[in-house]
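Hey, can you fold this?
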Amino acid sequence: MADAGKRRANRLLWLGLLLSVLGPLSNGLPFLGFPAHMVPWISLILPAVGLALVLTGFWRAFRRSEIYKGKITGSVLAIISVLLLAFSIAFFWGARRIPAQVAGAPQMGRRVPDFTLPDSTGHAISFEQLFSSTASNPAPKAVLLVFYRGYW
């Protein structure tokens, strides 16, 4: 058996852990201007690749223990990587779940209950006024409602 001081560090374990941690953190990329449609796949691929690297490093630590260190570290990092991948999958699944229809919510194609809000000039206007017709303006066939939060 080779001298314990000559064994090499098992860098695959740490690289795998880094990728496993970056997976869930990648969900914040849209806030930095990254295209949001790619983020779900990145947040799943990174922990999966990280887990594969950790398992490869884990295998190296046990199979070739005379060359590589990391039996205990590999075991702990493998568990952490599995948990991070499970968290990423659960977040991916839960974020895409469409909620059930709420009984009181307006449905597409149905008439919306009357409400009154200020227009862009500050004057109160009701929903029924939007559908009323005058001599100069015919009644519209539809009204598009845009719920805009604005900038704080």
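Oh, and this one too while you're at it.
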Amino acid sequence: MAQPFREALSAVVKGHQAVANQVAARLSGDDYQHLFAWQFVLELLMPQKKVRRVTIEDALAGSVDDVTVQHEVGSDFPDWFYQIKYHVDYRSEYSSQALIDHKPGEASLLEKFWRTWKLLRGQDAKRDIELRLVSNWTWDATDKLKSCIDGHDNSIKDEFLTASPRSNIGKLRKLWQSALGASDDEFQSFIKCLRFRLGYDCAQELEQRISERMENLGLKSNLSALLIAAGIVRKWIKKGNRAIAL
């Protein structure tokens, strides 16, 4: 076999492998997102959860659209908007800088959340909402913001908003606010609705938790049942039936 042909064939094989890896990663992420949504679909069968509608890939939720969980009017729960970031390994992590970094011509992750917040506020200024970033990646242990993330509910503590402008946190706050072009009042309201659920379940842990929930509801809960559940969610998305309610 001539050397140029061997080199060309090797390049093709490597190219196919790279594409296959990308497809596998995307499918793993889709399955994770679908099962993540399924756990809230199950809550429709749990009256104490007060869930009235679950929307998957919510067209009205801007960029934080992977899963929307709406609760019954008058309940103590806000509506939750989830952006799911599943990664097949732990080669990187999130940080305060990573949230505002972006490629030329693209919006940063924080800006996408900001635009979503403004969109939802425009729809209903009185609606109680939380915008939740969920990922199996963790938070950078050296990041200054880590001391401002509340371990109770994953919110950003008031210290982030009240820290001296000369402090490290104050400088970070100014950096974020300037990146968003937000007024003081808007920025404060936006920050209060953010939730960072980082270092979240790996895929296996998510499967185990949902399996237990299905078993408690008297449903089949083996691996086949989980695959069927993920397939049901995928079919809903394909058919455009993305808002699920009883």
